[in-house]
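Below is how a single chain appears once it has passed through the pipeline. First comes the sequence as given, then the structure the pipeline wrote out for it. We keep one example in the README because the format questions we get most often are answered faster by looking than by reading.
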Amino acid sequence: MPMPIIDAHHHVWDLAVRDQPWTADLPALRRSFQVADLEPLAAASGITATVLVQTIHAAEETPEMLALADSSDLIAGVVGWTDVAAPDFAERLAGLREGVGGRWLVGIRHQVQELADGSWLTEAATVKGLRHLAASGLTFDLIVRADQIRSCAAAAREVPELSFVLDHLGKPLIASGEMEPWASDVRVLAALPNVTCKLSGMVTEADHRSWTTADLRPYAETVLDAFGPERVMFGSDWPVCTLAAEYAQVVESARELTGGLRDLELEDVFSGTAARVYRLGFDAAAAPTTNLA
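Resulting structure:
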């Protein structure tokens, strides 16, 4: 595939700087992962740029990621965290954008998947923050469980001017082969023009030891059909993906799953959608407020 590839979703962390409590029961992830570890893997798979995504709700993490992006030739954007529902969200967001590497901030994410349900997404304080995020020209990544997708649709209707990005297909239950109600809920969400979807995180929702591309195909085809390639973007979810696959395997499986697409559609999935939605290569702070979804 002779085209640049953007990996629109990966993480890094340094356990010497900050604990990642969610890795406590995942020994394979219970170590530090640096950009230097990713660089040779990305180069070998033809990755030309990446989007670095937050991992925990820690105020210090996002400034560190922005500074990292400022010194990296690989990272083209950062999806960070600060509490969207906080009364001083506007001030927090401004502080991130005015700090070192602030121009690399392209979006905000909140760990909704850790909540009992998705109602947080439509609470008054959250909606107020999401509207400010939209006015700032940034995106909001949706990291949710499959049972929370309906709340994502409600939030996207509530703030139609904001570009929402569904991470990991909304975490369908691939290991058990379940399609419903996930598929129906995804189609409802995809009907909203301000939502895009990441073709990411599938291998860790499948059986870690025995997954095949055939196991992933019904889920990938559902989102490609529902959103269209122009609203789907590839992401590796490295290093979390290493629980089930090596980096190169994830890239290759995505190539296989999209093998039936035309050249322009492939360009959307592997670079165009991410570049448009996250405004990669542009100073987000100076960009006009536009719904790019």
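The longest strand covers residues 47-53.

See the next section for the split statistics.
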